[in-house]
Amino acid sequence: MLLSLRGRARLFTAGRGAAITLYAVLVLFPFIWLLSTAFKKQIDILLARFVFTPTLNTLRELLFDPGSMFSAYFVNSVVITLTTTAIIVAVTLFSAYALTTVRKLPPALGAVLLGWCLLFNLLPVVTFVGSWFNLFRQLGLYDTRIAIIIASVAAWLPMALWLGVTFAREIPKELLDAASVDGCSHWQRFRYVFVPLIRSGMTATTILVLLFVWNDFPIALILSSEQARTLPVYITAFSQNEQIRYAEMASSSLLVSIPVLLLLVVGQRFIVKGLLSGAVKA
């Protein structure tokens, strides 16, 4: 007997709910496992105990133990991430303004630059890390924050520049021309007209760059050994030849994830608004 329309609707709703639930379980399971492991003792992890007594000893040792390097590497990650992002955002803003509003520049320059950005984005970062390692070692900058910042800027600037120019092209040229007619200089047009109009797009770009630099692993792994090490590299130090210290690895991963989660929660609407700002024209 054929199902009625109401029965089909109920079946469809039940199937959709089951699919969403399954997807949510698959997505949340790694986070649930990480959260539970961070509060387990090493013996509970090795014995795969589902019922255990939560402990804060591992987190306490990471944060407050005199021999722990978590705080030092946290400072490295913060300094490298903020400095790299500030440089990339500043260069992107000025470059996007110049390429889209300054008529004296040859039109082919923008096409060549964006083509280079696209080509660079298609290549994995590890393609360039080896040459950067040799360069910074010869310059005496190996295992310094400066080396990682320079390499990170080179790695993520093409993506930011591509997005910035895309957002800048959506700005009505009439507004910038009107500012010129009113006697505004290039700096005044940039500060009072261009920057406010591109703010949403650049906010999304800034958040994306922050996330990519904070989570970056290959650059920090190759260009640091001890002093300039960042948190993603620090986590791998708990995987040793004799044993894998799962509790410390999970606890440090949890602490590293907290700033990322907070940034995503706060900046989610800015990311969506910025990335879709030029998708629909009035």
Report what the structure shows.
Its main location: membrane. It is found in: Cell inner membrane; Cell membrane. It is a multi-pass membrane protein. It comes from Klebsiella oxytoca. The protein has two domains: 1-56; 66-280, Orthogonal Bundle (MetI-like fold). It is mainly alpha-helical and 282 residues long. Helix 4 packs parallel to helix 7, helix 5 (107-122) crosses helix 7 (145-168) and helix 9 runs antiparallel to helix 12 (246-275). The termini are far apart. It has twelve helices and no strands.
Per DSSP, what share of the residues sits in E-state strands of 2 or more residues? under 5%
Provide mean pLDDT, rounded. Answer: 84
Q: Any idea what the CATH superfamily of the largest domain is called?
A: MetI-like
The outline comes out as: globular
Gyration radius, rounded: 24 Å
Give the topology string: H per helix, E per strand: HHHHHHHHHHHH
Total number of beta strands: 0
Structural class: mainly alpha
CATH class designation of the largest domain: Mainly Alpha
Low-confidence runs (pLDDT<50, min 5 residues)? none
CATH architecture of the largest domain: Orthogonal Bundle
Q: What is the first-to-last residue Cα distance?
A: 51 Å
